[in-house]
TrEMBL record, chain A:
PANTHER family: ARABINOSE-BINDING PROTEIN-RELATED, POLYGALACTURONAN_RHAMNOGALACTURONAN-BINDING PROTEIN YTCQ
Record carries keyword Lipoprotein: yes
Compositional bias of kind Low complexity: 34-50
Pfam families found in the cross-reference section: SBP_bac_8 (PF13416)
Descriptive protein name: Extracellular solute-binding protein
Alphabetical keyword list: Cell membrane, Lipoprotein, Membrane, Palmitate, Signal
Organism taxonomic ancestry: Bacteria, Bacillati, Bacillota, Bacilli, Bacillales
Species whose genome carries this gene: Cohnella luojiensis
Record bears the keyword rRNA processing: no
InterPro entries per the UniProt record, alphabetical: Bact_solute-bd_prot1 (IPR050490), SBP (IPR006059)
Signal peptide as annotated in the record: 1-22
Region (Disordered): 29-55
Top-rank taxon, per record: Bacteria
From TrEMBL, chain B:
GO CC field: plasma membrane
UniProt domain ABC transmembrane type-1: residue ranges: 78-293
Family per record: Belongs to the binding-protein-dependent transport system permease family.
Protein name, entry field: Sugar ABC transporter permease
Native species: Cohnella luojiensis
Superkingdom: Bacteria
Organism lineage: Bacteria, Bacillati, Bacillota, Bacilli, Bacillales
Length: 556, 306
């Protein structure tokens, strides 16, 4: 009896052990197979897709796609998502990434061989070194040379600067365009905005600041003079959605600081942080911080966390983007939620930039794209084709119609002459926000291109979605910047330029260092000098030389 | 001793077979999840290529270590790790013993259990949550600052002050873990023969004398073992805690090796090789410290681990 028990127990343990081992080795062999899959299957499937042209969507496919917050957006599996999945005969598997950790997550997935089919990342914009590495190590799929099957995508991929991210003549990423090229200045011009409580300014008798000192004085007054009149020391000066938006405040001091650009100084092209003009910016930001005009928690708050302070009347100014007034979670809606019965536009306005020493007012301008989609190298050619077809549709007029008006027959009707009548329900005066009914819309509509340009258009769809007052507000801002400002002088070609030493600059922790210097009590300019010394050991000087040499080729 | 050693191994194994079977799952666990992944250490001497895997990547000798010692930030992290670890051993380690002794002195059983539960509970809250709670306490609009400004003083920036980061780390970890760490001492105390206390009382010893002469000597062995383990763990400064609480403003005093490795591997750069080199460096140091602590404890007359 005892013996039988023992034998049984032993055999159970042995089986368990073997199954665990088998599990490990099983994975291994799978990995080996799948990593070699693209090369072996590519030739056969390429010919297959070329010959069977009739219906490219007969085979059902699972396609995994990563996006910031996609889990929440895809969870209700709404009709927009269903439509895409049905039309293209796919199941889209959401793979969530967050704004605070997407870079780390993608690196971990890359190392573990677990990248999704459609990879959302920002390496062509932020860290060309990692892009190069991913291309070299064949983690991502090259796009076909002949894109004639995807006409909309082909147009989108002809944007300025695209050659900068080609490797050996091949493109490995679909840049997420920020706007159609002809609208370069207008869209970016309203990207960075400082919202300010005009009721507080009136109460304290403050006029629009005309220089930095007046700006600082205004923020200090918000902190010290109890603008909300509750007899409590509970207001701060300026808060920010992310630090990126706050940079715009300093364009009159140092224009290139506003878009982290490169500039020519003493005959050499240098990154903005190496410029002597940084000194004044550092002094200004430090003084805002020590004099408490800047949110004391700016360094510890996560992205978007500080917005609440503005909504809840705890901050007088707020760095974000003009179009953020739109939508159910926009500034206007959130502010009015916290201030029932008050109209946002009666209490808040945008503070325009003041002129620099030469009398020029600068507006923001940036790269033609930020972030990109990449396709996992393990996707075979049929999957690649399917993904590209989806992207082509997303960029098509039919796609735009869906994103602007919703689902035909349900949200709008279209007459024979093309005239569109919106039929979706209203919430008070305004049609309800499409994204409220279709949470996946926000993601799907921006997969192939940011729709920044779409939201600043003055058209029926926007007026229906956001209300006349909001659309007019944005139009007024657009016109003001068009008439009064110049875009920041920008060497666009350097953003996507890749040279050995410049690529290594991605290891520089500029944001962290800047924050550290601002929070410290030591002299900021001296501290920055030592930070730059550290950067030199990481190859800053070599990068400057290489970029200067490259730019000389363009006679710049 | 000799007799056993001379017996054939197979026979000895068979004799204690049930014990070995009981041991097997644990051994398996360690082999699979601790020893097997160790081949990753190879990365410290390789230039890692994601597609080629750990074994396929080319060797590059000591290059990763040479890169490492050139990095200024690494030495800062190294220094911080040492300081924080020493602080943990000096401040956090005795706190649990103290709490166990104090709880033991509570006369009423029910009250004793109540305190023990209250002190143990925070252990089950993750650092992500704790950091959120602390932010609510310590931010510029946090409760503490509201009290300070109510009393008419200037608000303080607790979370970004490099001088305050380490005290905050120690205090919050004591708050969170002290009850949990005290359990093992309480168990040791529960195992003390009550007759010893009775005899002491008959001899006229007061409670402090009982504590000094009976309770403390009885748990000293446990404390010694735990101290060795703590020292052996000292190059791990507590990644979860630091990662959730730090920010660029306190890197100078708060960035530890683990957080530095995390940032350099996943956020800033692309070198897994250098990060692994740091990990290996850390492990070797931990091993040396463990041995040193064990040696010290034995010299002081307690039983060590090995």
């Amino acid at each position: 009896m005892k013996r039988a028990k023992l034998v049984a127990l032993n055999s159970v343990i042995v089986v368990l052990f073997l199954s665990v081992l088998a599990g490990c080795s099983g994975n291994k062999s799978n990995e080996g197979q799948s990593s070699s899959a693209p090369s072996s299957s590519s030739s056969s499937s390429a010919s297959a897709s070329a010959t069977t042209d009739e219906n490219p969507f007969t085979e059902h496919m699972d396609i995994s796609v990563s996006w910031w917050g996609i889990g929440v957006g895809f969870e209700p599996h709404d009709e927009v998502l269903q439509k895409i999945e049905k039309d293209f005969n796919v199941t889209l598997k959401p793979v969530d990434i967050g704004w605070d950790n997407y870079k780390e997550k993608s690196q971990v997935w890359a190392a573990a061989g677990q990248l999704p089919d459609i990879i959302t990342h920002s390496i062509t914009s932020d860290t060309p070194a990692i892009y190069n590495e991913w291309v070299d190590q064949q983690l991502i799929h090259a796009l076909p040379d002949d894109l004639s099957a995807y006409p909309n995508l082909k147009t989108a991929l002809s944007i300025d600067g695209i050659d900068g991210i080609k490797r050996d003549g091949k493109l490995y990423a679909i840049p997420r365009g920020t706007f159609p090229v002809e609208q370069v200045t207008s869209v970016w011009a309203v990207d960075g905005a400082v919202f300010v409580r005009k009721d507080w300014m009136e109460k304290l008798g403050i006029k629009d600041p005309q220089n930095f000192d007046e700006f600082k004085a205004m923020l200090k007054a918000f902190v010290e003079q109890d603008p909300d009149g509750n007899n409590k020391d509970d207001t701060t000066g300026i808060v920010m959605n992310t630090f990126g938006y706050f940079k715009n405040v300093f364009t009159p001091t140092f224009p290139e600081f506003g878009n982290k650009g490169w500039l020519k100084e003493d005959g050499k092209w240098i990154p903005f942080y190496a410029s002597s003009k940084m000194d004044e910016v550092l002094r200004q930001v430090r003084s805002l911080y020590t004099e408490k005009a800047l949110d004391p928690d700016f360094a510890v708050a996560k992205a978007g966390e500080a917005n609440q302070k503005f909504y809840q009347n705890k901050a007088g100014a707020f760095s974000f983007t003009t179009t953020s007034i739109y939508g159910a979670n926009g500034i206007k809606a959130e502010w009015e939620k916290n201030n029932p019965d008050l109209n946002f536009f009666d209490h808040v306005k945008i503070l325009h930039p003041w002129a620099d020493a030469n009398g020029i007012k600068y507006s923001n301008v940036n790269t033609p794209w930020w972030s990109e989609s990449m396709i996992n190298a393990e996707a075979d050619d049929r999957k690649l084709d399917r993904i590209l077809r989806i992207y082509d549709w997303l960029l098509s007029p039919a796609g735009k119609e869906l994103f602007d008006y919703g689902i035909e027959g349900k949200d709008y009707t279209k007459a024979a002459d093309g005239k569109i009548t919106i039929t979706r329900p209203k919430d008070g005066e305004q049609f309800i926000d499409l994204k409220k009914g279709y949470p996946s819309m926000d993601i799907i509509s921006q997969l192939a291109a940011w729709r920044n340009a779409a939201t600043i258009e003055d058209n029926e769809a926007n007026r229906a979605a956001f209300g006349d007052q909001s659309v007019q507000f944005v139009q007024d801002e657009l016109n003001w910047t068009k008439e009064n400002t110049k875009p920041i002088p920008t060497a666009f070609e350097i953003f996507t330029m890749s040279t050995p030493a410049k690529d290594k600059l991605s290891a520089i922790t500029y944001d962290d260092d800047f924050t550290r210097v601002i929070l410290s009590k030591e002299d900021p300019v001296k501290m920055w000098q030592s930070v730059l010394e550290g950067y030199k050991s990481k190859g800053l000087q070599e990068a400057i030389d290489e970029v200067t040499a490259e730019m000389a080729k363009f006679n710049k | 001793m000799n007799k056993i050693a001379n017996k054939p191994l197979a026979k000895e194994l068979y004799k204690s077979r049930y014990l070995y079977i009981l041991l097997l799952p644990t051994v398996l666990f360690y082999v699979l999840f601790q020893y097997f992944p160790m081949y990753g250490i190879l990365l410290a001497f390789k230039e890692y290529h994601i597609r080629e895997g750990i074994l396929g990547s080319p060797w590059n000798g000591w290059h990763n270590f040479e890169e490492l010692v050139k990095q200024h930030d690494f030495w800062r992290a190294f220094r911080n790790t040492l300081i924080i670890s020493v602080g943990r051993i000096v401040l956090e380690f005795p706190a649990a013993i103290l709490l166990a002794l104090l709880i033991n002195e509570v006369a009423k059983q029910k009250l004793k259990r109540f305190y023990q539960t209250v002190y143990t509970f925070p252990h089950f809250i993750s650092w992500v949550i704790v950091s959120g709670i602390m932010f609510n306490f310590l931010s510029s609009e946090g409760i503490l600052n509201q009290m300070i400004s109510f009393l008419g003083y200037d608000k303080q920036t607790f979370l970004t002050d490099p001088g305050l980061f380490r005290p905050i780390i120690f205090l919050s970890n004591i708050w969170k873990e002290v009850g949990w760490s005290a359990i093992i001492y309480l168990a040791a105390i529960a195992g003390i023969n009550p007759e010893l206390y009775e005899a002491a009382r008959v001899d006229g010893a007061n409670r402090y004398q009982q504590l000094k002469a009976i309770t403390w000597p009885s748990i000293r062995g446990t404390a010694a073992i735990l101290l060795i383990l703590a020292v052996g763990n000292s190059m791990n400064g507590g990644f979860e805690q630091v990662f959730n609480l730090y920010n660029p403003g306190v890197y100078n005093t708060g960035d530890i090796i683990d957080t530095y490795v995390y940032r350099s591997a996943f956020k800033d750069g692309t070198s897994f090789g250098v990060s692994t080199a740091i990990g290996l460096f850390k492990a070797v140091l931990n091993f040396a410290l463990l041995y040193a602590a064990n040696f010290m404890v034995k010299r002081l007359g307690e039983e060590g681990l090995v």
